[in-house]
Design the sequence.
């Protein structure tokens, strides 16, 4: 069956360290992969989009990698800050041949301690 | 300011009483969709619309209706709400279906008793 999985446990790290979040999927071949941030009770906010032919993308302290062979994306936040504490969602952007949907993982809750 | 608005933000209602949650975007986006978010189940798509007068079912459409008479508006209708529709609902829009960021509304927390 088709599946998308993110770090099942919450991630707790110290301020200043790099947070690494994982998104694994099976039985999809997404054309794009997106990452969102969600604060409690609020709507997700778009962070980054990476295409299937891109290995890595950066935006300020954020970096996303996309390995279509491993079927995995890694999301890094460098020099993390308490304000980075939130739930992070990955989303597979599938082509029409696979349903043409944006399929969300359940999210990883990140807590950055001062 | 580019935004997606939803109303109401909070709603408590009783089983069977029809309700509508409005959604509006000011970015001239073609694509709009509705999601529900439940603990342990993540975001699941209810309905989506590729353009005016074009709507289609998502993964969990049962018990919901939508319409897209104007490009900016995409209301979600619950004709006869039931307790299992208690959830956090999000409307989202994007320039096109694939390859573009989704702009989400602030959410509507619905409780059906």
Sequence:
């Amino acid at each position: 069956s088709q599946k998308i999985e993110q770090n099942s446990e919450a991630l707790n790290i110290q301020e200043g360290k790099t947070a690494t979040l994982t998104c694994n999927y099976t039985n999809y071949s997404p054309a794009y992969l997106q990452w969102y941030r969600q604060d409690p009770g609020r709507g997700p906010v778009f962070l980054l989009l990476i295409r299937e032919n891109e290995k890595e993308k950066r935006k300020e302290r954020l970096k996303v990698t996309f390995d279509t062979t491993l079927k995995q994306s890694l999301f890094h936040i460098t020099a993390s800050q308490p304000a980075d504490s939130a739930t992070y969602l990955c989303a597979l952007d599938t082509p029409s041949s696979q349903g043409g949907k944006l399929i969300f993982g359940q999210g990883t809750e990140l807590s950055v301690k001062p | 300011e580019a935004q997606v608005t939803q109303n109401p933000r909070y709603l408590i209602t009783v089983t069977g009483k029809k309700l509508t949650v409005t959604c509006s975007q000011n970015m001239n986006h073609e694509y709009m969709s509705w999601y529900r978010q439940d603990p342990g189940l993540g975001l699941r798509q209810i309905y989506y619309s590729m353009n005016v007068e074009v709507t289609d079912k998502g993964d969990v459409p049962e018990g919901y209706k939508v319409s897209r008479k104007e490009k900016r508006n995409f209301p979600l209708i619950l004709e006869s709400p039931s307790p299992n529709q208690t959830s956090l609902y999000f409307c989202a829009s994007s320039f096109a279906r694939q390859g573009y960021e989704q702009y989400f509304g602030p959410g509507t927390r619905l409780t059906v008793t």
Q: What stands out?
A: Chain A has a mean pLDDT of 92. Chain A touches chain B through 23 residues (CB under 8 Å). The first strand of chain A starts at residue 3 and ends at 6. The radius of gyration of chain A is 14 Å.
